[in-house]
């Protein structure tokens, strides 16, 4: 990154950005084969806008013009999952792929580092692909190098996990197993991962009896959870990005029924936020994590944890629900944490400080929840209702500053009931198939300040099933990854017909880039930025009127973000490469203000 004398010059006026319908359909890619179920897992991008998709396929699959063959079906056996990870350029040209063709390998989550490396976590087990059981599984990198996992069991209760690092060319750097014990006969699952600015990895997972964490002296965590046929204990660990060795770990097995931390993010404030579900035993038990403890209810409680990079726990926030709750995704921006998922609200609902999220239907309803990063207190909550099932999977904030949620809905609750999906603020999606229980995809956007629903898109509809999986933003682009088993009609009336029982879909939306608009001049009574050349910083004047300020490059990628302390706001410019940049401010009244700057 070039460093030299910097002169920051205003190259446009600054003004307010009005809220409008921002997202538009931008095309799709599909993948799969004619045999069985091929399904979506996760999608991420890197700092230069490349796209990484993780999917599973049976026997054979074609994606973006490339065909892959997986583990064969043996005598009397069924096909099983093969891993397929593909790196695409911003123009959606395939750059390389990673896949498996031995055993059952299922990707769970992806993350990228600042220099473009790819981190992958997933689950592995053997399969019966002949008249006898095999005990291995593998991953094949972009150069054809095979990594083999050995000593695996073939039952679903024998699933183990792995974390692997690939460089930006798709070449394996290291791989670590997370096993239950030497016999690998008890389940260990990874759930989510994130990377920090230094390339270190934060991983969540769950296990039934024990898990061995990779380090010079392996660390074994054990569970005392009980109360059902599949009790689970949760863990969170930090791995060294260079070696894959464990730097610290936190477990929370305290004898309760179940714990799953299913979402994690590394915030722009340098903290780690993890969210999931805790369910207590019949006799309530206090759960300890680090130096803090809490007592979940006997239902499925929404739980939020905040850690610093050294593993110190800042707080635990728990919101009880006597019925079902599921956490799908989490993101953080400008002092707020956003969690998405689904819940049953027919038994009191999720209890928040101001009100409860409830529903009159005994089915899953979607939710979006906002917490303060400072102490985890509630900011706002939104429900997504229908007579059937609604789940909100991915959440992200692209360059237009809105919160986007991607999910799926099955409008029909019974053979005689149909109705619209209600997102609040008088915004609904109509039931397109009232005579059957079809499942369709939606994209919604919200005001980050108060959760007001701003826009809705019916991403895909059909007479069959479309399920959401993951969503990511890279500036002006939104990438939505899902699965379909039927002919899908997209928002621009483009149609796709699935090849097999299920295929995976990568759908692209673009958002209006606020930095490309012609902005209306404003007087200096509004917040505005000036340059402090001596201290190499951008200083915001009238900062008491600003809640946050973010510096973007001209491709809408975040360079730095600062949260207001109520009196002053500055952004340091040391180490920033020459070019055109944008200062984006959010005023205390919720308005968006931008200035374009030239850094030399």
List the helices and strands and how they pair.
Elements: E1 9-10, E2 15-16, E3 23-32, E4 39-45, E5 51-57, E6 60-63, E7 66-69, E8 82-88, E9 94-99, E10 104-112, E11 118-125, E12 137-140, E13 146-149, E14 160-166, E15 172-178, E16 188-195, E17 201-207, E18 210-213, E19 219-222, E20 233-239, E21 246-251, E22 258-266, E23 272-279, E24 287-289, E25 292-294, E26 301-307, E27 313-319, E28 325-333, E29 336-344, E30 350-351, E31 356-357, E32 364-372, E33 378-384, E34 389-396, E35 403-410, E36 421-422, E37 428-429, E38 439-446, E39 453-461, E40 466-474, E41 477-484, E42 488-490, E43 495-496, E44 503-511, E45 528-532, E46 537-541, E47 546-553, E48 558-563, E49 569-572, E50 579-587, E51 592-599
Antiparallel strand pairs: 1-51, 2-51, 3-6, 3-44, 4-5, 5-8, 6-7, 8-9, 10-11, 11-14, 12-13, 14-15, 16-17, 17-20, 18-19, 20-21, 22-23, 23-26, 24-25, 26-27, 28-29, 29-32, 30-31, 32-33, 34-35, 35-38, 36-37, 38-39, 39-42, 40-41, 41-44, 42-43, 45-46, 46-49, 47-48, 47-50, 50-51
What characteristics describe this protein?
single chain, six-stranded antiparallel β-sheet, about 600 residues, Immunoglobulin-like, mainly beta, 51 strands
Fold and architecture overview:
This protein is an all-beta fold and 600 residues long. Among the domains are: 9-16 and 515-599, Immunoglobulin-like; 327-475, no CATH class. 0% of the residues lie in helices and 52% in strands. The strands form 14 sheets. Strands 1, 2, 47, 48, 50 and 51 form a six-stranded antiparallel sheet that branches. Strands 7-6-3-44-41-40 form a six-stranded antiparallel sheet, with no helix packed on it. The chain has a six-stranded antiparallel sheet with strand order 34-35-38-39-42-43, with no helix packed on it. β10 and β11 form a beta hairpin. The radius of gyration is 24 Å and the shape is globular. The protein starts with 8 loop residues before the first strand and ends with a strand. The model is unreliable at 1-19 and 515-525 (pLDDT under 50).
């Amino acid at each position: 990154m070039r460093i030299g004398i910097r002169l920051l010059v205003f190259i446009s006026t600054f003004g307010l950005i009005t809220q409008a319908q921002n997202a538009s359909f931008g095309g799709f890619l599909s993948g799969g084969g004619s045999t069985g179920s091929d399904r979506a897992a996760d999608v991420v991008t890197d700092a230069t806008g490349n796209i990484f998709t993780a999917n599973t396929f049976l026997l054979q699959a074609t994606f973006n013009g490339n065909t892959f063959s997986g583990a064969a079906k043996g005598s009397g056996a069924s096909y099983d999952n093969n891993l397929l990870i593909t790196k695409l350029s911003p123009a959606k040209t395939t750059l390389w792929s990673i896949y498996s063709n031995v055993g059952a390998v299922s990707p769970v989550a992806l993350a990228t580092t600042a220099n473009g490396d790819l981190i992958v976590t997933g689950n592995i087990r053997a399969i019966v692909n002949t008249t006898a059981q095999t005990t291995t599984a593998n991953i094949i990198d972009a150069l054809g190098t095979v990594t083999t996992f050995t000593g695996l069991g073939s039952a679903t209760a024998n699933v183990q996990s792995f974390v692997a690092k690939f460089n930006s060319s798709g070449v394996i750097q290291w791989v670590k197993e997370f096993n239950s014990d030497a016999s690998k006969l008890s389940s260990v699952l990874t759930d989510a991962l994130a990377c920090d600015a230094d390339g270190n990895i934060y991983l969540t997972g769950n296990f039934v009896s024990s898990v061995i964490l990779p380090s010079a002296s392996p660390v074994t965590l054990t569970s005392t959870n009980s109360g059902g046929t599949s009790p689970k204990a949760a863990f969170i660990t930090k791995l060294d990005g260079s070696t894959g060795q464990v730097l610290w770990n936190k477990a929370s097995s305290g004898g309760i029924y179940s714990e799953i931390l299913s979402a994690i993010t590394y915030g722009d404030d340098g903290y780690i936020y993890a969210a999931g579900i805790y369910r207590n035993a019949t006799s309530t038990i206090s759960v300890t994590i680090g130096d803090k403890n809490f007592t979940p209810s006997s239902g499925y409680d929404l739980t939020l944890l905040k850690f610093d990079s050294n593993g110190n726990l800042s707080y635990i926030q728990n919101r009880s629900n006597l019925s079902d709750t599921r956490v799908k995704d989490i993101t953080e921006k400008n002092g707020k944490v956003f969690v998405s998922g689904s819940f049953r609200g027919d038994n009191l609902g999720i209890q928040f400080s101001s009100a409860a999220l409830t529903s009159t239907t005994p089915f899953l309803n979607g939710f979006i929840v906002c917490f303060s990063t400072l102490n985890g207190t509630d900011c706002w909550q939104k429900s997504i209702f229908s007579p059937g099932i609604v789940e909100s999977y991915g959440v992200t904030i692209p360059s237009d500053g809105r919160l986007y949620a991607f999910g799926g809905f099955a409008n029909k609750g019974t053979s005689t009931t149909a109705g619209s999906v209600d997102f609040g603020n008088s915004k609904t999606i109509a039931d397109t198939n009232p005579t059957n229980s079809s499942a369709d995809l939606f994209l919604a956007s919200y005001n980050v300040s108060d959760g007001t629903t701003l826009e809705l898109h019916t991403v895909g509809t059909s007479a069959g099933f479309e399920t959401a999986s993951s969503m990511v933003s890279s500036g002006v682009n939104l990438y939505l990854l899902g699965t379909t088993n039927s002919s899908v009609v997209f928002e621009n009336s483009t149609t796709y017909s699935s090849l097999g029982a299920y295929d995976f879909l990568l759908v692209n939306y673009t958002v209006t880039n606020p930095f490309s608009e012609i902005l209306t001049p404003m007087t200096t009574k509004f917040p505005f930025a000036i340059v402090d050349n001596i201290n190499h910083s951008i200083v915001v004047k009238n900062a008491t009127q600003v809640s946050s300020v973010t510096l973007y490059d001209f491709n809408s990628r975040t360079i730095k973000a600062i949260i207001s302390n109520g009196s002053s706001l500055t952004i340091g410019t040391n180490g920033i490469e020459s070019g055109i940049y944008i200062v984006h401010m959010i005023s205390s009244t919720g308005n968006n203000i931008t200035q374009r700057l030239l850094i030399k």
